[in-house]
Amino acid sequence: MIVVGVGVGPNMLTQEAIEVISNAPVIYGSKRSIELAEKFIKCEPHIIKDYKNLHLLPDDAVILSTGDPMFSGLGKFATEKDRVVTGVSSIQAACARFHVDMSTLAMITAHGRDPAPAKDALIREVGLDKNIFMLPADNFGVKEVAALLRGMRIDARICIYEDIGYSYERSVCGTVANPPENKSDVYCIMIVR
Predict the structure, then answer these.
(1) Fewest CB atoms less than 10 Å from the CB: which of 4, 34, 72, 90?
(2) Which residues is 48 bridged to in the sheet?
(3) Which helix (H) or strand (E) holds 21?
(4) CA distance 186 to 75
(5) How many helices and strands, by DSSP H and E, does the chain display?
(6) Do 59 and 140 fall into the same domain?
């Protein structure tokens, strides 16, 4: 299989991704990933219903992953014989938006999983004076992050970037004491020290 990152939002496909998608004999993905790539899809796309069974798909199947497949994406299901095509990630977009050097970041994801390891990683990385990029979980978002940082007596800027690439995207910053509020469920958090 070929796992292709379709980018974090509209118009963020790489040329390599466009070529793979345009030549795909069969495509699978989430509704959102198919929508992001639809103008380049020439075959009938299929919605993925069970991500744990991707290994059962044909060898020539193209699997669409939002953002970059290797950060909280479907690249984790690829084997050594599979190909992974990178996509524009929310990390890249947020660093550009907030002028943060990617080399200063610790990257953490709580998206779609138990947030306990993300919380532990956040505590550890903030303790090392790192800037943080985080994909939140429903129960571990900007409010919980700000409360944790307040408890640690950390002073930082907290930024959120929502619906990246769409005409209604929103980026806003606040402080640990007065964090921004997300209006969308599709967002990322940056903690800038």
Answers:
(1) 34
(2) none
(3) helix 15-22
(4) 20
(5) 5, 10
(6) no
Say whether both 68 and 95 belong to one domain: no
pTM (predicted TM-score): 0.89
Is residue 93 within 8 Å of 162, Cβ to Cβ?
Answer: no
Nearest one of 131, 107, 102, 128 to 118, comparing CA atoms: 107
Tally the C-alpha atoms within 13 A of residue 32's C-alpha that lie toward its C-beta: 11
Q: For residue 5, what are the CA distances in angstroms to 46, 63, 84? A: 16, 9, 8
pLDDT tens digits, one per residue of 169-191: 999 999 999 999 999 999 999 99
Name 44's Cβ contacts closer than 8 Å, sequence gap at least 6.
26, 27
Domain that holds residue 116: 90-192
Tens-digit pLDDT profile for residues 96-119 = 999 999 999 999 999 888 999 999
Q: Examine the domain organization and report whether 9 and 49 are in the same domain.
A: yes
**Pair 76, 115 in one domain:** no
- The dihedrals phi and psi of 164, each to the nearest 5 degrees, come to -60, 130
Structural domains in the chain (count): 2
Task: Kindly state the helix (H) or strand (E) to which residue 190 belongs, with its residue range.
Answer: strand 187-192
CATH of residue 71: 3.40.1010.10
